[in-house]
Amino acid sequence: MSKEALNEAAAPAAAAGQSLFPTYARYPLALVKGEGSWLWDDKGNKYLDFMSGIAVTNLGHAPKQVKEALVKQLDELWHVSNLFQIPNQADAAKLITDNSCADAVFFCNSGAEANEAAIKLARRYNQKVLNNGRYEVITFQQSFHGRTLATLTATGQDKVKEGFAPLPEGFVTIPFNDLAALKATISERTAAVMLEMVQAEGGIHPVEASFIAGVAALCEEQGVLLIVDEIQTGIGRTGKLFAYEHFGIEPDIFTMAKGLGSGFPVGAMAAKEKLREGFTAGSHGSTFGGTPIATAAVKATLETIVGERLSERAAKQGQYLIAELREKLAGNDFVLDVRGLGLIVGIECAEPIADILNEAQERGLIALSAGPNVIRLLPNLLVTDEEIDQAVAILTELLAAKRQ
Question: Core-most of 15, 153, 208, 336, by most CB within 10 Å?
């Protein structure tokens, strides 16, 4: 696309922005084209994308396989009600169950909706199937589970809750990686424990292996459901199709979205067979959940990631990225830690890093934060060594200027 065409495509952007609620602290960039690991703005500038739409474009921008599936589906059928059979939806669900510990899938539109479905299923299973009246969900400090009233209440960060009182009852938040706190909190009211394998929004904090093993054992012992939020960690990003696979556990329920449709909005909640009774006809639903178009994107995305073993590639590239960062940043006292799992990587710094992200953009690299002091890197699963080297070189130079 020529620079002139890019300018024409983005011309209305500034005016249109005046009609939007100011719910986002937007960068002064209008991105109008993407291909693989690269983005272009309306002025023709090129950027290396280590944000991936916040772990969404796991196959890079405009992947051929997904594009072809969507174009084919657009020529056939866009939408029918979930009151009818939808072949794409059944096929996409089978891809998930064939490649996970789940037996049943519910499709929705976003990660927040997937987590809402998980919470609802946990409560309804306890109250309608087990008839024990349990409703409480235990979550963890610094977690992030969504922006609906229920999921922001589940989130372990006060900043997302300001101004939305009264919040729904039935949620308790405790310290992360603290098994003693969980043992002390589980009660006859507890329906489920809900957590992320890597707290992404909370600063890129992977779960401790001993902790999650203890959580799984405790849930089994106490008859409590284990919900794993895979919204940001799922679909190959951590080096496994789902991050729970790293830890030798099987959640009763897990959720996914973001990378599931390669940028097409779709989410899903998956669960073990015993929970099928919890969601009977009429108990939950979504008008746009699992449409022919959305599940065409899901099918093509999963077929590509599974068929081309891209989770394994993400593990390899993630190891390379972390190793390069640790080597190049060694001795820089402004950098406190480099951590992550697969291609979800955080660089913890001694001070806020907003200015570093702005300077990185000026040098052609797009990254984002995970809290005020952590640089979050989320390249796509097909990122090359050369692209990693380029990103590391930019960050190394910027962080060197911050040495204490």
Answer: 153
Q: Measured between alpha carbons, how far is 50 from 368 in angstroms, rounded to an integer?
A: 8
| Core vs surface per residue 61-74: b (16+ CB within 10 A) or e | bebebbeebbeebe
Show the tokens assigned to 107.
Answer: 């499709």
Q: What are the two backbone dihedrals, phi and then psi, of residue 261, each rounded to the nearest 5 degrees?
A: -120, 15
**CA–CA gap between residue 312 and residue 192 (Å, rounded):** 31
- The pair of structure tokens assigned to 166 is 């009264």
Kind and range of the H or E run holding 5: helix 3-10
Predicted confidence (pLDDT) per residue in 5-21, tens digit:
444 544 444 555 689 99
Dist CA 362 CA 357 (whole Å): 9
How many CB atoms are closer than 10 A to CB 41? Answer: 19
Pairing outcome for strands 365-366 and 344-349: unpaired
Question: 129: which DSSP letter?
Answer: I
The CA angle 321-101-196, to the nearest 5 degrees, is 50
Is 1's pLDDT higher than 50? no
Residue 388 · residue 379 · CB < 8 Å:
yes
From CA 29, how far away is CA 40, in angstroms rounded? 10
Neighbour order of strands in the sheet with 104-108: 104-108, 267-271, 253-256, 225-229, 190-196, 136-140, 171-174
Instruction: Give the DSSP per-residue string, 317-381.
Output: HHHHHHHHHHHHHTT-TTEEEEEEETTEEEEEESS--HHHHHHHHHTTEE-EESSTTEEEE---T
Q: Which amino acid is residue 317, in one-letter code? A: Q
- Tell me the CA end-to-end span of the chain in Å, nearest whole number: 44
> Which two tokens mark 387?
């692209």
Tell me what pLDDT residue 403 has.
Answer: 79
Residue 207 to residue 244: CA distance in whole angstroms: 10
Domains and CATH numbers, the chain: 3-62+310-400 (3.90.1150.10), 77-307 (3.40.640.10)
Tokens of 191: 């329906």
Residue 93, both tokens: 């669900």
Sign of the torsion angle spanned by Cα atoms 238, 242, 246, 252: positive
For residue 283, which amino acid is it?
A: S
Q: Each residue of 328-381: pLDDT tens digit?
A: 999 999 999 999 999 999 999 999 999 999 999 999 999 999 999 999 999 999
